[in-house]
Design goal:
A hairpin with a 2-residue loop joins strand 1 and strand 2. Helices cover 59% and strands 5% of the residues. With 128 residues, the chain is mainly alpha-helical. A two-stranded antiparallel sheet has the order 1-2. It starts with 12 loop residues before the first helix and ends with a helix. It is elongated. Helix 4 packs across helix 5. The protein contains 5 helices and 2 strands; from the N terminus they run αββαααα.
Length: 128
């Protein structure tokens, strides 16, 4: 098994154990640097499990930092979620014109350069 970065191994440590056990059952040995580790050997098992735990820890730290950054951005008003494709006045106009039967859904989509589903969502979900 060739892994360029150890953090790629341990995103889910339980699956790493399953992968390593399955490969070991087929006689595959694991090399880290110039050292070969045997999964059936207690030291090799300890070493590979430790690598997987460190990799899982690094992944969790990355996730935590992302969540903290998103919370800070939301607090500062920088993270608002996906913005509507069309401004509120355009959405009101679409609802009014469609309700009055002026234009079809496809014509509105073409006029506003959006997909028909976007127009459908605006018409049938007034809160958006």
């Amino acid at each position: 098994m060739a892994v360029a970065e150890t953090r790629r191994v341990g995103y889910a440590r339980c699956s790493t154990d399953d992968i390593l056990t399955g490969l070991s059952g087929r006689g595959v040995l694991f090399g880290v640097g110039m050292t070969i580790h045997d999964w059936s050997d207690p030291f090799g098992r300890l070493f590979l499990q430790t690598l997987a735990m460190v990799a899982e820890f690094e992944a969790n730290i990355g996730h935590q930092r992302t969540r903290e950054g998103m919370a800070l951005a939301k607090k500062n008003g920088k993270l608002k979620g996906k913005q509507p494709k069309l401004p509120a006045p355009a959405r009101r106009s679409i609802r009014r014109r469609y309700a009055e039967g002026e234009v079809s859904l496809a014509d509105l989509a073409t006029e506003y350069s959006v997909g028909r589903f976007t127009i459908h969502r605006i018409i049938h979900n007034p809160e958006t």
